[in-house]
Each structure stands twice: as structure tokens, then as C-alpha cells.
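This part of the workshop introduces the protein records we will be handling. An example says more than a description, so a record of this kind follows:
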Amino acid sequence: MKTCNILQAAVATIVALTGVIPSGASASDGVHAESLELNKSITRRVYEEGLNQGRFEVPYSADFVGHGGRNNFTHADGMAEAKGWREAFPDLKITVDKQVAERDLVAVHWTASGTNTGTGNGIRATGRAVQITGATLFRVADGRIAEEWTCADSLGLMKQLGMLPTPAAAPATDGSSPGAP
């Protein structure tokens, strides 16, 4: 066996065992592509099974860390929030618009819609229909979600729910009362 073939066999073995492609190597045998597709299918389940159906059986690592805004959260915190969204929006539907995967990361752009007929996550029932978009970056390790960063249009959600104060009329600068002709 030529040295080149031995090296290729060694790289293929590393990829097959770890799902990680060494720097400078290529995934000509498709193992890397299969790993990326597996990671995408795991993260898609967060939306299709968890948030859409209320079946929260997606595999998370024991040391999962979520990142939302300035705060970190645990898996238990994340599950409580997900259940709160389902309580506030019983008809919640989240569509995965786009997924991009590289190495152990999967980026998901999503659209959420629903009608706020319940109470959850501090939101009282308004009866209003909403639609927002967001993006989540997941890190997957050993077939489990190990980390998550989410950014969503919270301001748009609050506007659609009518939960923002309406701006007061600006005071007149000419001495007349606001709204006076």
C-alpha cells in the first residue's frame, strides 16, 4: 500500500470515528456530510417536535448551556420557557426557514406564528395573532445539543401583542395645547 493510500485510510478512520475532519483534510467519503445532516436533523427536532408539538424529547447534553441576550440558562430553564411559549400560544407553529451546518455548529433561521390565547412566560392572553423571525446557533456534541445562542424579534412580538406603551403626544413648542389647531 502506498503511503498516500495509508494516509487517506487514516484520515477516513478519524472522520468515521469522530465526525471531525482534520485541518486540511477533505470529506470525499461523505462521512462529514452525514454528520452535518445528523446535526441538522437533531436541531430541527427542537422546533418540529418540541415547540410545535410539545414533545420535548430532543437530546441535550448533561452540561448544556444556553445563551439568551445577556443571560445564560440551563436545560431546565430552557424547557420551562419552551413550555411557557406553548401555554401562551397553544397553536404555536415554528417553521425552519434555513439551516446551515459547519463542523459541530448548526445555524437555524426560523419563523414563529401563533395566537396568544393563553398565559405563559409572563404574557397575558391578548387574543392577538403574531408572527416573528429569529435565529439560533446550536453546538452539537456526540449527537446531543450542548450549547445554544438565540436571537429573536422580541420588540416585534411585544408590538404585535399591544404590550408597548403608546407614545404620548409631544408637547407643543408654541405655547398651544397638543393637538390644537
